[in-house]
Amino acid sequence: ELIDINLEGEIAGVILDSPDMQKRVKQLDYGVDFNGYFNAGVMLINNDEWRKNNVTQESLSMINSGKIFRYADQDVLNILLNGKVKYLQRKFNNKTTLSVNFDAEAKNIDNTIIMHYVTPNKPWYKIFKARYFDRYFNVSPWKNNRRFFAPSPSEIRLKAKREISGKNYSIGVYHYFCYLISKVFRLRF
């Protein structure tokens, strides 16, 4: 479906960011209209237009200029590509977060084509419920690669607390044990 999108005359196909994010960015006053602020995590790039407009060089120049951009490359790309993009449907960049405290994937994702995990909690850590990621990971070329248990000991501790409060005592104790081992011996497993 993405491959059939016509980007003639546009540098990229992008997906609008959330209204909350657009409000936050407007306050930064970069001098462009941020009603069209997009999330740079998923972009369909027209390579010819990208090169013709020197987007890579211009981006690096802005990032290395010393000016602080709150959302780094995403802000820079929004500034450089302002008015030069085609807006695509949200199904191509369904942003979600992962936490040991809830199942973010439980929300309605019927039409999702690309799921974008936007926090440091990524689905390749086994501690998070990420059944869609797991399904595709298990049939991917990386299926035999090692997946770490958690990004940090504190996530293991949070999982233990959640399980105990949900009366899943054996699972909670197991996670507390993992947490203690990871803290005391500074192990990552």
Automatic annotation (TrEMBL):
Q: Give the Pfam families listed for this entry.
A: Glyco_transf_8 (PF01501), Glyco_transf_8C (PF08437)
What cofactor does this protein call for?
Mg(2+)
Q: Where is the Glycosyl transferase family 8 C-terminal domain?
A: 130-183
Q: Per the record's keyword annotation, is Cell inner membrane included, yes or no?
A: no
Annotated InterPro entries: Glyco_trans_8 (IPR002495), Glyco_transf_8N (IPR013645), Glycosyltrans_8_dom-fam (IPR050748), Nucleotide-diphossugar_trans (IPR029044)
Enumerate the GO terms in the molecular function aspect. Answer: lipopolysaccharide 3-alpha-galactosyltransferase activity; metal ion binding
Is Transferase among this UniProt entry's keywords? yes
Which pathway, metabolic or otherwise, does it act in? Bacterial outer membrane biogenesis; LPS core biosynthesis
Alphabetically ordered keywords of this record: Glycosyltransferase, Lipopolysaccharide biosynthesis, Magnesium, Metal-binding, Transferase
Q: What Gene3D superfamilies has UniProt attached to this entry?
A: Spore Coat Polysaccharide Biosynthesis Protein SpsA, Chain A
Domain of life of the native organism: Bacteria
Report the family membership. Belongs to the glycosyltransferase 8 family.
Question: What's the name of the protein?
Answer: Glycosyltransferase family 8 protein
Species of origin reads Salmonella montevideo
